[in-house]
Amino acid sequence: MPATDLTFPAADGRVLSGTVFAPPGRPEGALVICSALGVPRPYYRKFAVWLAERGVAVLTFDYRGVGGSVAGPLRKDRSTLLDWGRLDVSAAIGFALDTWPDHAVWGLGHSFGGQSFGISPRGRDLAGAIVVAAGSGDLTLYPPALRRRYQLQMAAVPLVTAITGYVPGRLGIGADLPAGVVGQWAAWCRTPGYARGALGIEGTHYHHLDAPMAFYDFPDDTYAPAGPSAELRSWYTAARVTHRTVTPGELGMDTIGHFGFFRPGPTEAVWAEIRDRVAGAA
């Protein structure tokens, strides 16, 4: 199963790193994976390989300032979360559409990736979207104990960035990240309505997407619990939405949480549902 590392330009010309996973024969569909905050693209490799072996071409990529798309010292990187959505996700969708012009191109968004389809003006060009473990970041929607935990985490960001110039992953956000990305994320989380509240409804594209969208969430996910997940789904008002809560017990697992879905094993039963959607068999 060929996997090819490559680069492509973001909408403003910044170089992004990606990997294309090509099926052994003619693709039955194509998928661009938009990552979670602070998660470099190798995290999705086993999932991408599994899909490619079953006929779906896949593009993974790193947002600017993450993994292979780091360009110089992070303390000098002025990237924001809005850049990720408007510039990087848009470019990845465009690259996938150009690479597989004769196939339906779907998006899969994990966490922030699921939010990004309504931030990018190219989200409406997808044939459909899968949203996994994603919700609004509006902290007022979180249970009190989780809200306090994330408020404390965000309160440390200005102090840390004043010292280091970036946000170290050891604060619990995954990879090291540019200060502007985490600062804007924290600001949106404190804004009623999260990204839509900060940017304005007409400053986003959630209400313009009219393709099929399948949402998957997990009851033990502390980053995207039920309330925030339902809020995000409600923003995609024109989409043909389906929603499924997958419990660990259903798959014979002890836990799934925010990150367990992309680990091979029992989750492959749900991976097959996604494969069939993208390939047009569902």
Beta percentage is 15-25%
Strand order of the largest sheet: 1-2-4-3-5-6-9-10
Give the total of beta strands: 10
CATH homology superfamily name: Alpha/Beta hydrolase fold, catalytic domain
How many independent structural domains? 1
Q: N- to C-terminal separation?
A: 24 Å
Instruction: Report Rg.
Output: 18 Å
Unreliable sequence segments: none
Please give a structural write-up.
It is a single chain. It is built from eight helices and ten strands. It has 282 residues and is an alpha/beta fold. The protein has a single domain (3-137, 204-279), classed as 3-Layer(aba) Sandwich (Rossmann fold). The strands form two sheets. An eight-stranded mixed beta sheet has the order 1-2-4-3-5-6-9-10, sandwiched between helices. Strand 5, helix 3 (112-116) and strand 6 form a beta-alpha-beta unit. The model has no long low-confidence stretch (mean pLDDT 96).
Offer a quick outline of the entry:
This protein has helices at 45-53, 81-99, 112-116, 144-164, 179-189, 194-199, 226-235, 268-279; strands spanning 3-9, 15-21, 29-34, 56-61, 105-110, 128-132, 166-167, 177-178, 212-217, 240-245. The protein is an alpha/beta fold and 282 residues long.
